[in-house]
Design a protein that fits this description.
The chain has a single domain, classed as Glutaredoxin. It is 31% helix and 30% strand. It is built from 3 helices and 5 strands; from the N terminus they run βαββαββα. Strands 2-3-1-4-5 form a 5-stranded mixed β-sheet. Strand 4 and strand 5 form a beta hairpin. Helix 1 crosses helix 3. The longest helix is centred in the first third of the chain and has 17 residues. It is globular and about 45 Å long. Bound molecules: FE2/S2 (inorganic) cluster. FE2/S2 (inorganic) cluster binds next to helix 2. This is (2Fe-2S) ferredoxin domain-containing protein.
């Protein structure tokens, strides 16, 4: 298990971006994936809002926010607060990508 850093764009849609970041943070706590021990090592998953991920075209589409998950560098678009539960469970917990939100970039 590795540390993840998730950046959520709040540049064009500060409201939904902030809500998405909040929802992901809440899910990390609920699912016990904020700080945890895996393979004898402490791991952290962190969420931060940011200004622009250079995906502005995606931010203009749909009601959601653009996000990027590092270290994989996976970009998702149109992410809404309701997607936080499966993002944390699937991507961070199981290493499975959310194909319906995935951006080619
Ligand atoms: S405004 Fe969201 S990526 Fe640029």
């Amino acid at each position: 298990m590795i540390d993840h850093h998730i950046f959520v764009c709040t540049n064009q849609k500060s409201e939904v971006g902030d809500e998405v970041a909040k929802a992901i943070k809440k899910e990390l706590k609920l699912q016990g994936l904020k700080t945890f021990v895996a393979g004898g090592q402490k791991a952290h998953n962190r969420v931060q809002t940011c200004n622009c991920l250079d995906l502005c075209k995606q931010c203009k589409k749909g009601p959601g926010a653009a996000i990027v998950v590092y270290p994989e560098g996976i970009f998702y678009g149109n992410v809404r607060p309701k997607d936080a539960e499966r993002l944390v469970h699937e991507h961070l917990g199981k290493g499975r990508l959310l194909n319906d939100l995935l951006l080619d970039n």
